[in-house]
């Protein structure tokens, strides 16, 4: 059974940092593009960041550029999202996602990802 499990969310003050982790089990995604999405109350699930299989290419939505960093450790089947200088508007449930096949390109649409975690809540207080 394929599983993606996020952890590391929590409550933090504006300007603070959090590091989200995503652990994959059931199969390896070392050759797959991985991404992070987020969903705030009343809003759609939006793209945050993506990383190709070797970590050579990363891509971020404009609102997090310079503040968030996506990385991966293929030996451990882990993906991370380091979030710095957090703002109240970053408050959301954050989801880890994996592409369904070994495509070595950046993916930004939800329908391009086949596997999803259950999400972890990030709350940034002002």
Spell out the key features of this protein.
mainly beta, 126 residues, 50% strand, 4-stranded antiparallel β-sheet
Q: Could you outline the blueprint of secondary structure elements for this entry?
A:
Elements: E1 3-7, E2 10-13, E3 18-25, E4 34-39, E5 45-51, E6 58-60, E7 68-73, E8 78-83, E9 92-99, E10 113-116, E11 120-125
Parallel strand pairs: 2-11
Antiparallel strand pairs: 1-3, 3-8, 4-5, 4-9, 5-6, 7-8, 9-10, 9-11
What do these coordinates show?
- The structure is a single chain.
- Helix content is 0%, strand content 50%.
- It contains no helices and 11 strands.
- The chain has strands at residues 3-7, 10-13, 18-25, 34-39, 45-51, 58-60, 68-73, 78-83, 92-99, 113-116, 120-125.
- Strands 2, 4, 5, 6, 9, 10 and 11 form a 7-stranded mixed beta sheet that branches. A 4-stranded antiparallel beta sheet has the order 1-3-8-7, with no helix packed on it.
- The chain is globular, with a radius of gyration of 13 Å.
- It starts with a strand and ends with a strand.
- The model has no long low-confidence stretch (mean pLDDT 95).
Say how many strands there are.
11
The amount of helix comes to under 10%
N- to C-terminal separation? Answer: 40 Å
* Relative strand content: over 45%
- Global shape: globular
Helix segment count? 0
Radius of gyration computed on alpha carbons: 13 Å
Structural class: mainly beta
What are the secondary-structure elements, in order, as H or E?
EEEEEEEEEEE
- Unreliable stretches: none
Q: Summarize the biggest pleated sheet.
A: 7 strands, mixed
User: Averaging pLDDT over every residue, what do you get?
Assistant: 95
